[in-house]
Amino acid sequence: xxxxxxxxxxxxxxxxxxxxxxxxxxxxxxxxxxxxxxxxxxxxxxxxxxxxxxxxxxxxxxxxxxxxxxxxxxxxxxxxxxxxxxxxxxxxxxxxxxxxxxxxxxxxxxxxxxxxxxxxxxxxxxxxxxxxxxxxxxxxxxxxxxxxxxxxxxxxxxxxxxxxxxxxxxxxxxxxxxxxxxxxxxxxxxxxxxx
Length: 195
What we know:
The chain has helices at residues 6-40, 46-64, 69-78, 82-86, 90-127, 137-170, and strands at residues 176-179, 185-188. It is mainly α. Helix 3 runs antiparallel to helix 6 (137-170) and helix 5 packs antiparallel against helix 6 (137-170).
């Protein structure tokens, strides 16, 4: 019969249960303190508070990410993803960097495979299994593979620059795009009338 170490098990489970039980109480205290702070603050209409937040966010964003579209394009040509990061989209910049790095890695790997195929072709020619003027089909296939990866690398290189250029232009686009109540998309543009 297997004996379980109850004392050890209890020594581990009891503190875990107490910690799990104590956390909601701490969160409730924190929430009540936040509620008291909000009640002490003077009542500001929501529109004024929201406009102040938008102005503060626009001010800090404008100061941090104020580069021209041309500069964003050139930065992405130097290092794919740098232009996106410079305008405030580091996630998108990381994606372009990863795509370019991956395709350059595959250029390197396909070049290694091409060299191996050329060595095989040379060995077959020396053994007399391949005529001197013929090219091994494997060499042709590896050469095409390397060209495909080079083409993809160049594509990601320029596509990253074009995306940074367009994103820098659209950075200040002031239209609200959101989900419609029925699940579709909606486009809303505010047109001020009056002074």
